[in-house]
Amino acid sequence: MAEADAARRLLRRLVAELRQRGHASPEAVAALALLASRLGQQPLAASLTELAVRGGQVPDFRVNWLRHRLVGECLSAGPGQAERSVRTRAEAVEAGDAFYRHYLDDGDVDLINGAGGVGMMLWDLADEAARARLARSLIQVALSSMEQKSHGLYHGRGGGILLLRMLGRRYGQDRRMTAAVDALVRHLEQLTPAVLDRGWLGVGGVTMCYGQPGMLTALGPEVDPEVLTGFINASITGPAVQRLDELLADPGSDVTLCHGLAGLSLATRLAPGWRELVGPDRRARLAARLARHLNQTDDQTVTAVLDTPLKVSLIEGTLGVALALAETETTSRPWWGVCVSLGDGSASGTIGSIR
Fold first, then answer.
1. SS (H, E, C) 192-240
2. Taking residues 248-252, what's their average pLDDT?
3. Cα–Cα distance between 115 and 141 in angstroms, integer?
4. Which helix (H) or strand (E) holds 164?
5. Beta bridge partner(s), residue 349
6. Phi, psi of 307 (to 5 degrees)
7. What angle, rounded to 10 degrees, do the helices at 26-38 and 42-53 form?
8. Nearest of 208, 207, 292 to residue 249 by alpha carbon
9. What DSSP state is assigned to residue 346?
10. Predicted TM-score of the model (pTM)
11. How many Å apart are CA 311 and CA 340, to the nearest integer?
12. What letter does residue 156 receive in the DSSP assignment?
């Protein structure tokens, strides 16, 4: 898709800025490596990954996890590769364990800033024995998520459904999973179009963090046909899709991953149900809108990417927009989504390495 060229142009500008500076934080370089990889520029992704892993361990558990995954995704087997993989994995597990214990002690199960999100990364890193030890704790995190008032993906019950799906629980087979999904559908069916303007479904009423795109992402590609029918027939669904048309036509609309159009675009890869609702014409318009935004990015914004923490850059910044646009033409699993606690839409689980 030609629109992804806008993400490539942004990447070239970012690399030029990096070369001019001569240095950047390990997380900034890892972010560039990720974008290069998703755009199919593997030699560049490999060299950036090499640079990113030289920086040593960093406080953000996301960055440590991302660097380990980049080592496996971008670097070919060779001298020192196995040692590098072992080291980055150990760093990621150490950072993740510390954050996970901290969030559990605080009772914070959030998928962005809580045990839910860290648990997804620890699960991805864990071998069979470690998963057996972690599973009981993650089930409790998922159940605690389901006790929240919101049905949102990031800060509500949808996150608990996503975690249970990661743990292999399936609708119609697992009692808790089935009850949680049925409750989500019942809640959705009770919503009227008026809630689009009350903030209950996030900014603009159609968002990844709280709205239908996030809910369908939590349900994943194996969503039960009757559940999907409940979504499609809900009285709020038609107005929500019409709201997307309004957002596409509004030059002032949010374009970010969490609250804006980039998230709605990425959800078409993660959730076939949302992809079906959006349709090919809106998908094309989404991509064109994101491309237009990237093409209009000024030099100050480009410079700021290298100084922005990874989580903020993904969820609220230009990097997340570029990555969402890159996925419009990429066919491999969008595994990086776990950085913001999103599934990869595959039938095998929510993270690419789950079997």
1. CHHHHHCCCCCHHHCCCCCCHHHHHHHHCCCCCHHHHHHHHHCCCHHHH
2. 94
3. 7
4. helix 157-166
5. 346
6. -115, 10
7. 160
8. 292
9. B
10. 0.93
11. 7
12. S
The pLDDT value given to residue 341: 55
Amino acid at site 59: P
Q: How open is the CA angle 211-212-214, to the nearest 5 degrees?
A: 75
* DSSP characters over 82-141: HHHHHHHHHHHHHHHHHHHHHHHHHT---SSSSHHHHHHHHHHH--HHHHHHHHHHHHHH
Residue pair 57/308 in contact (Cβ under 8 Å)? The answer is no
Q: Determine the Cα–Cα distance for residues 220 and 274; give it in Å rounded to an integer.
A: 10
* Helix (H), strand (E) at residue 53: helix 42-53
What pLDDT does 256 receive? 94
pLDDT digits (tens, 9 = 90+) for 283-319: 999 999 999 999 999 999 999 999 999 999 999 999 9
Q: What pLDDT does residue 1 have? A: 67
Cα–Cα dist 90/65, whole Å: 10
Phi-psi region of 263 (alpha: psi -120 to 50; beta: other; left: phi over 0): alpha
Half-sphere exposure of 277 (CA within 13 A, CB side): 31
Least reliable range by pLDDT among 90-104, 132-146, 195-209: 195-209
d(Cα 313, Cα 62) in Å, to the nearest integer?
12
* Strand partners of residue 346: 349
CA distance 211 to 200: 8
C-alpha to C-alpha distance for 193 and 226, rounded to whole angstroms? 22
Query: Please, what is the average pLDDT of the chain?
Result: 90
User: Measured in Å, how far apart are the chain's first and last C-alpha atoms?
Assistant: 30
On the 0-12 / 13-18 / 19+ scale of CB atoms within 10 A, 248 is middle
Q: What is the mean pLDDT of residues 221-244?
A: 93
Over range 207-211, report the average pLDDT. 90
